[in-house]
Fold this sequence. Notes:
120 residues; mainly alpha; Rossmann fold; flat
Amino acid sequence: MLHAADAATAFTAAIESALAGTYHVVDDEPVTLAAVLRALAERLDASEPGRVPAWLARWIVGTETVRLLSRPMPTTASRFRDATDWAPRYPTYRAGLDQVVAEWETQQQFGTAARAGTAD
């Protein structure tokens, strides 16, 4: 997972370093989509996301998609970091979510009534 601001600084670092080739650019903590959604719901004081039985998910979207969404991606940005001296500002998805939710709250996109599950 990677915060958009970290993706932007990684892109800049790659250009400034004149890198060639393919690099993985990720934060420091592998995570599943389910964990990200649970963490986001927690930060928004929302109910934990529901779950779909694995057999049903495989039937609807296929085995490979279920595997992609339910397992952390086994990758690292170490090669990119060594080549550019880049490091993410938000080293984990949790830190990135904290920033995103704080920004939403600053912009009042999630008012008190909306966060409580009622209309404004």
